[in-house]
Amino acid sequence: MINRVFDSSGPEGKVRGTPQQIIDKYQALARDAQLAGDRVAAENFLQHSEHYARLLSEATREQNQRREQQEAQQAAQQAQQQTQNQNQNQNQRRDQQPHQQPDETHAPDLQNAEQPDIANPSLTVENGDAGLVETPEAKAADTAPQADAEAPKPMKPVRRRKPVKQDAPEEAAE
Hints:
The chain is mainly α. Helix content is 47%, strand content 6%. The protein has a domain of 88 residues. Strands 1-2 form a two-stranded antiparallel ribbon. A hairpin with a 2-residue loop joins strand 1 and strand 2. The chain starts with 5 loop residues before the first strand and ends in a 32-residue tail after the last helix.
């Protein structure tokens, strides 16, 4: 509305222009009327000038409010964007960092923990295996074929049967 062009019908005829141009024109006419000694015409021009000054101030106030709202929205969007960027950066840093050892407060203290006595006779088993777990490799070594035992026989290849040819039906020669 500040740059909108108005047509004002005043006592001296039409005045055309933006609100600021109309205000300036009516104030110039009021000065001229006052210099001519016409107080009534000067007051009339000043009233017209005041009317457009009020329009201009209202339009300026509305424009400033809109601008402040837009700036507040932009600031809120920027703050939200910064928060999202910070969260993404933290997630990326966490994903890129090698896995760290657990916090000392939650990890057991292995240096000061009681260690088992290897020479303790209660831990040894009477058959001499010392309580070790049997592994598949150890079983294979125990059950390995002896040199005099015969080796497993290789598998015979699978033979496939040839497809049987079917004779084509003979056509009658009649």
